[in-house]
Design a protein that fits this description.
Chain lengths: 177, 177
DNA sequence: CTTTTCATGTAACAAGTTACATGATTTG
DNA sequence: CAAATCATGTAACTTGTTACATGAAAAG
């Protein structure tokens, strides 16, 4: 359901074709709300049929550029003002619960991989942050706020994984005695 | 797909009926991997048909108790040792990107609600932590590690939301001038 | 004897993924 | 002219949600 709002939000910022949207999803929303090509085109048709988007230009190779309508804007605002979304399922944590089912060494590897990935993700995010040319429009402002969340999130994960590895090592030691 | 492993993991720890599983999901995995009654019973049937679980006891009111089989254990281990899961979609953050589409006051309310909820979730988690009687078995050990993640996560979210509110206020002030 | 809890199951729907399928235009 | 990029669309499948449907046993 959020896909449609992601699309509405991007198009509200700037009119786009399906292809444009696909690139924009990849570039700016990949880590927040991935979308596939197939999904985007299907939803585009539905949104246009519902009157939330309208084709405002056509280009070569059948390119259709969509713009948001007033109804679309209203729908977007309603979503933004709605009840807080519930936190998503977390497969990474689910696995942690069951780490007792594998050998301690393998469990350690899992946590170590999480630590490494968090570190890498953080580095990538910082690169991206440096590469983007930040405006002072709404989209940039809130984009920076979202990015700040990512930085804090990855840093937290890294620290937690490191802490967990220590806890696990300590427990293994005590057992060894 | 993870549902089945969540079920396998719980049953590996202790044989359970569908009803038991439903309670256990609610009690310990609700925030990590919610599961509905309908899903659980459907999957239980499939897992038994696939030989990953077996009915090892029957009680009153048609109660069937399932235990994990060796094949089931192997399947669980394989999942645990597999590639890292990708981070989930994040609707909460997706909304942040588009906060420019509503009035500043409403955007402020959204962030304030996030802050409040994080604080509340953290408090609830700490209550739960105090209520559980922690063993030193695997399940408790990794349960505590997962809970630690929750604590850090909610704290991080609260701090971030507070920071974002300041950023937003500052920007509004600058614009007002 | 009434309500709550225990207990299981099915069906319709919504959202997301993967794979298939096609073709025009631009660039080297 | 060959390859890359632009551009759109459909179908089958998987996962998850909501609602429907039923009934036995325990507790007050």
């Amino acid at each position: 359901m959020s896909l449609r709002y992601g699309m509405l939000g991007l198009i509200a910022d700037r009119p786009s074709s399906g292809y444009d949207l696909l690139q924009r999803f990849k570039k700016s929303l990949a880590n927040v709300w991935p979308a596939t090509q197939s999904q985007i085109y299907t939803e585009l048709t539905k949104l246009a049929a519902a009157g939330l988007l309208a084709v405002t230009d056509e280009g070569p190779r059948g390119r259709k550029e969509y713009s948001i309508t007033e109804e679309g804007r209203a729908e977007l605002r309603q979503w933004l003002a709605g009840a807080l979304p519930r936190p998503p399922r977390n497969e990474m944590l689910l696995r942690v619960f069951f780490l007792g089912a594998i050998a301690p060494e393998q469990a350690r590897e899992y946590m170590a991989a999480l630590e490494t990935r968090s570190e890498k993700s953080l580095a990538e995010l910082l690169d991206l942050k440096a590469a983007v040319d930040w405006d002072d429009d709404d989209f940039s402002t809130y984009g920076r706020i979202a990015m700040e969340w990512g930085e804090r999130y990855f840093a937290m994960n890294q620290e937690w994984a490191r802490w967990a590895l220590k806890e696990m090592a300590q427990r293994d030691n005590e057992r060894g005695r």
